[in-house]
Amino acid sequence: AKAQLSHLEGSASPATPGSQDKTRPAPAPAAPTASEPVYQGDMFASLEPSAVEEALKALDVDDLTPREAMNRLYELKELLKK
Fold it and tell me: Is 73 buried (19+), middle (13-18) or exposed (0-12) by CB count in 10 A?
């Protein structure tokens, strides 16, 4: 948790008032890179993929007609309601 907080706050230590150089702007916090995933914790989230996620993984969108795609979207929308 401390490492994640440190990453989110940026690598620079907090400056005391008046100690920052007024000619240079404060450095921006480092953005997470592709090798450093940032996760938002949710104590109610399931670790298992939802039915909608499973259906999307199984869906071959390049092989659908526009009408089939629309029907699948309606099916996925109904899955969300469950």
Answer: exposed
Chain segment 24-51, per-residue pLDDT in tens:
666 666 665 666 666 666 667 667 888 8
Q: Give the chain's mean pLDDT.
A: 77
Pair 77, 49: CB distance under 8 Å: no
Residue 55 CB partners (closer than 8 Å, separation 6+) = 72, 75, 76, 79
Q: Name the strand (E) or helix (H) holding 6.
A: helix 2-9
| Sequence-distant contacts of 49-54: CB under 8 A, at least 24 apart | 50/79, 51/79, 51/82, 52/76, 52/79, 52/80
Which pTM value belongs to this model?
Answer: 0.42
